[in-house]
Request: fold
Amino acid sequence: MSQTAAATATPEVRISDALARPGDPESSLKAPWAWKPTWVRMPLRQQWTNAEFRARRVNLFLTAIVLLSLADLAMTLDHMTGAGMYESNPLARFILQWGTPASLAMFKCMTLLLGSWLLWRARRSVAGEIGAIVCMVVLTWLMFRWNDYSAQMAELTPHLAEIKTYHNDMWVAITTDP
Reply:
């Protein structure tokens, strides 16, 4: 028995065939760019108004907000366990004057959780996206302020005792003294 070359040839395998759904006759007729994600194929103008894409953007903003907020908490506790710092947030100052660093961390984490949950619930709305953008801008500005504060504290190190004396009510330091 001899077989012809056409009978023994393997069929040509295409990427679109590999991605096709079994039993879907139209899947092999799709355009060659059909394997790309939807956000690549859809024009930006349509992505901007689409609620699903808005939800993805807000989720990305929320991830960055959580990371920047945790960095802010770490820097706050780091500066306060050293020589101390001027705390401009009156709630955080009150908590540190009458509480512990753990209570400040819990306060900041609970407010972060509440704010993130509210923005997550509103992730498909324009207001949720604007809120996430505003929070992201504020936290980014805060990171630049931390950078400036760290640079200025290096210059003020010789004068820390004088600063503590004259700004006693605003200066907060975490000490290990009983």
The first strand starts at residue 85 and ends at 86. The chain has two domains: 10-41, 50-172. The chain has nine helices and two strands.
